[in-house]
Structures are given as structure tokens and as C-alpha cells.
Amino acid sequence: MTLELQGIGVSRGIAMGRAHILFHNQPDVREYLIPAFAIEQEVDRFLDAIEQARQQLKSIRNHIPANAPSDITSFIDTHLLMLSDSSLNKIPVEMIRQRRCNAEWALQLQRDALINVFNEMDDPYLRTRRDDVDHVVTRIHRILTDQEVAEHEIPDGRLKGHIIIAEDLTPADTVLMQHQGIAAFVTEHGGATSHTTILARSLGIPAIVGVESVRRYVQDNEPLIVDGETGIMLMGADERTQNEYEGRLIAFREHISSLSRYKSQPTKTRDGKAITLLANAELPEDVTTISAAGAQGIGLYRTEFLYMNRLSPPEEEEQLAAYRDVVEGMNNQPVTIRTFDLGADKTVDGGRHLNQTVVTNPALGLRAIRLCLSQPNMFRTQLRAILRASAYGKIKIMFPMISTMNELLQAKNMLEQCKHQLDNEHLEYDHHIEVGAMIEIPASAVCAELFAQHVDFFSIGTNDLIQYTLAIDRINDHVNYLYDPLHPAVLRLIHITLEAGKRHNIDVSMCGEMAGDPKYTRLLLAMGLEHFSMHPNAILEVKQVINETMLDELPSNTLEIMNAADIVEADALLELINGSSN
């Protein structure tokens, strides 16, 4: 009998193979007192474990193919940076000396303190960085407790063609197992924005997350079928079902292979409407991947990486160097830089805020543009660096989480102050640099008509817009099933924003994950979206849909989807839209 389990499909593709159940044996960490004469020996034991963990990660990084996407190595580099951060390599040492406790316990106490801070973070993407803390700490704990190297870190080929079943996976786990040729993975936990799922998409590994208690239902070596798009995992499939999925697997591989022909083609619909495809980026190294994908620029450049895992904010010259590298690497293609989207609990103080009062609703607190305006010196430093980088290429500035006109005008006023400073210092910058606002909360979408009169462009951040509109946390396993881009409230807010942009003749782009999902492309085209920004790996699939679409042949009732009474009706209308213009 066929048993079907449903999770969240986070990386497209079909996989058929036998299960390999991965159990992470968590180290048993207990506190015990260290004799005074042995304290420095305990410190040395801890520092030796840090160094061993560093060597393990370097070995993993060395196994990554040279042509792999840059975000793969960036995940490993993030873990290496954390090992060098004082919050992990110095504070536990102080605890060992002050409390006379064992290294495992000191590390565990610091881990708990750091996790508490990350749990209060506002932005879902940055909040998933707590996983990185856990992954690094677990690696050190394994070394301290003399546990053997995990089986999936031994490259003996035993995992080739297998579907990994696990509670959760680290980015390092994923890289190592992809190198061994795994077919797919299914986990009990995880969200659409975790590092591991982003990595799975980069590596092209079909993946499903959020399948509760999956290890209770699957037996080791049991034949499985995984559909990374629908989030369905099948056990005990009959011959007819197996044949059906084998056909779908062949078709999917042929489809992916055929996408390369679109790389050199212009992006336009069959009836001649030109569309702009941009890429989202977070690190200067992403430029290589973006250029290879055929993007026409960067529609969202996140700057938070400059502020994380450090004791003090980055100085102007450091930021200028990072932004200049990106803009010069893009060869005069536009780069839209978002000012830092941090929260009050994510300041760069090396942990001095660990004892701050817990914020009840951090997502509704001091974050993004609100924090920028409350930290004028840090904000001006970034604005000056972005302006100066604009002398080296086409740059646009984008303010995140604008909710009031006062915020927008204050931010623009501070930008003008920075321009005057640079003029007085005779430093070059683009005097006509474009300024935009992110539309990512309902208030800004409803008031888009007002904001459009004061900016040069909008960018719709659907990830946050959907969450704020529907009051759900998309990385919370209990409510993420409610995360629905087709909810009529979400579509109406997008429609309002697009119409405001049209009336005031300003560009409107979309940089959330909805923009990179090909099943929404025709709907967004019908709504009037002309500028898409997405993960580089999604560009060719979206481009194919655009280039094969006749706008005039889309159903005349397309926008009725905004009045759909339920998910079933909305999905049926979307299927009708996607079935046209073929």
C-alpha cells in the first residue's frame, strides 16, 4: 500500500532511491567542577577543539567543486568566521576560568545565550542564523566528547543514490552528502529560508522539509519517491506510480537541460514585451554566479553580512570596498543596495546585549529603517559608502520596511546631508542616484500612492509582505502552512502597489521568493510586473516562462484570482493561467 507524507517542498526535482536514515547523536553535555590546577589544561582542551573544528570545516570546503555556486562556500566560511569570533572562542574561556566549569558546559551556556538573541530576531532569513550557531557548537561538542566523525563525513560512496531522512541537516552535511551523490533529502524540521534549503536549491538537490516525525515512518533502505516541488514523499509505491514518477523524472531532467538555450536570449514575451530579470545577492562573491546566470543586474543587495559576527560596525572605507567590488564586478549593470535590515537585538556589539530585556514582539519592534534612523551615525556611514561607490557604476539605494511618510522623508533628508558632506569634501558620487522604498508591510502597500510621489522606484518584498499580512511566521512549523502568496489580501496589496507605480511612472520590481517561482510568473506578468529579482538559479526557468508567454492570450479573467474564496479556487485559477499561452 502506498503511503504519502506531506511536507514543504523547498527544492524542485524528482528523486527515486532508498532511504538512509541519519541520526545525529547529540553529545551528552553535563557540568562538572575543574580543579584549580587543571583550569589552564581545560582552556587548552577547548582551544584545541576549536582548531580541530576549523580544520574539519576547511577540509569540507576543499571538497567543494571549483565551479560550485559561491553561496555554497559562503555557508562554510560563515561557520569558519564564527569559530574566530570572540563570542565562541573567548567568552567560554572566561567562563572556564571564572566558574571553574568544564569546556563542554561553558560552551553550552554561551550557546544558549546566543540562541536567545537569535530567537528574538525580526527578519526570518537572519533568524535562521541561529541554526549556524547550533551547527558550529555541535561540531565543537563532538570533538570535546571524543565522538567519532559522523558517517556522512566519510567519503566512501555508501550514500550514493540514497534519499537522506534526518531530523535536520547542516549546510556542511548537505555539501558533503551532495559530494557523495545523494538523490534527495527529507527532514523533520527546517524552513524555506534556512541555509540548508537555500543550499539545496543551489546544488539542485530535491528536498522536502517539515515532515513531522518522518523517521518514525521510514525504515532504513526502504524505496522512496520524493517530489521536491509538491512536498510529497511516497513509500511503498506500486508499479504504476513508480512508472509515472520515472517518466516525470526523465521529463524534469530534460527540462533543466533545455534551459541553457535561454541564457543568451533577450527576456521578452512572445508578443514583444521586454521584461527585466535581476538577481538577489548577499556577498561580493555572488557576482560570479549572477553573471553566469545571465541576470541584467542586482535587484536586491543585502548588506547585513557586513554587520554580523563582529564587535563593532564596519567603517566607511570597508563598506566602500565591498560595494565597489560588487558594482565594478557587474560591469555597469544596475545594483540596488538595501540599507541594513537589522533589528535592535542584532547590533554588532559582540554579545553585550545578551542581557537586554526580552522584546515580546521583535518583528514589530525597532528594526530596518526604524533602527537606521535611531542610529544616525551608523546610518550615515553606510549612506556615504554607498554614495561613494556610485562613482564606480550604476547604484540605486533602497530603504527597507518603510511604513510612514515621516520615515521616508527622514531617510531621504539624511541622504541629502551625506551628499552635502561629500560635496564639501570634493568626493565623487552619482548626483542623480535613484532612491527607492521596499513595500513589505501592508501599511506601505496601502499607502503606495502617497509614497510613489517621493521615490524613484518600489521593490515588493513578498516574503515579509505575506507574513505581515497573514500574521504568520513562515519558519514556524506550526503555522507555515498558512503562508500563501495567492491569498486575496496579498494579491490585492501587490496590485495596489503596481497600479501606484504605473500612475506615477516609477518602476516596480519584486524581490521576494514569489518572483523566482515560475508558477507565479504568468500571474505577475498579467498583473503588470515588469521587473523581477530572484536567486540566480531561478532566472532561466522564469525566463523560459516569460519568453513563451503571449500576454494577449492570458485569460481575460486573470485578475479574478484576487477574489478567490479559498485556496482550491485560487489554485484552479492559477492552473488556468499557466495552461494558457503555451
UniProtKB/TrEMBL annotation:
Localization: Cytoplasm
Sequence ranges assigned to domain Phosphotransferase system enzyme I N-terminal in this UniProt record: 6-129
Domain PEP-utilising enzyme mobile: 160-231
UniProt keyword Ribonucleoprotein, yes or no: no
One GO cellular component term noted in the UniProt record for this chain: cytoplasm
Record-linked PROSITE patterns: PEP_ENZYMES_2, PEP_ENZYMES_PHOS_SITE
Protein EC: 2.7.3.9
Catalytic activity: L-histidyl-[protein] + phosphoenolpyruvate = N(pros)-phospho-L-histidyl-[protein] + pyruvate
Residues involved in Mg(2+) binding: E440, D464
Coiled coil regions in record: 36-63
Protein name: Phosphoenolpyruvate-protein phosphotransferase
Organism: Methylophaga aminisulfidivorans
Gene: ptsP
